[in-house]
Write a structure and sequence with these properties.
This protein is α+β, with helices and mostly antiparallel strands. The chain has a domain of 67 residues. 27% of the residues lie in helices and 21% in strands. It contains 4 helices and 6 strands. A 6-stranded antiparallel β-sheet has the order 1-2-3-4-5-6. A hairpin with a 2-residue loop joins strand 2 and strand 3. The chain is elongated, with a radius of gyration of 21 Å. The two termini are 36 Å apart. This is Type 2A phosphatase activator TIP41. Pfam families: TIP41 (PF04176). It comes from Solanum tuberosum. Belongs to the TIP41 family.
Length: 139
């Protein structure tokens, strides 16, 4: 779902759009910016697999998408991105999810038809964002 606002709505809320065509707004000392890019290429996926030391990644990864919350005066940033979330998934190393219906199906299928998943294919992660502090914050 895409949300669009006009200048009047932003001003009424005490906000203004970010400059330079960036997608987001500035409000009460914070910049809120979202970045939407295309899906990773097969080469980029391969690089991520090498970096994460896994051969299992989601079928589609929008690796350059992010949400960044930045406190302008201090340079403190909280950001959310796919790579850091997958790093959390990799470190968590949860066992594969066993769905009750799948267990019943397993007994009815032939061994050659069974797909063995040795990883958490739900990509459950404890990731709750990343933080950084920029050195050149406005004072």
């Amino acid at each position: 779902m895409e949300w669009e606002s006009d200048e009047r709505e932003l001003k009424a809320a005490g906000a203004e759009p970010l400059p330079d065509g960036r997608s987001g707004l500035r409000i009460h000392g914070w910049e809120i910016e979202s970045r939407k890019r295309s899906i990773l290429t097969s080469l980029q996926l391969q690089q991520w697999e090498e970096e994460l030391q896994t051969s299992h990644l989601p079928e589609m990864v929008f690796g350059d998408n992010s949400l960044v919350l930045k406190h302008v005066n201090t340079g403190t940033k909280i950001h959310f991105n796919a790579l850091d979330a997958l790093v959390g998934w990799k470190h968590e190393a949860l066992p594969p999810v066993e769905v009750p219906a799948a267990a019943k199906w397993k007994f009815r299928s032939k061994p050659l038809q069974q797909v063995v998943l040795d990883y958490d294919y739900t990509f459950t992660t404890p990731y709750n964002g990343s933080e950084t502090v920029e050195r050149n914050a406005e004072v």
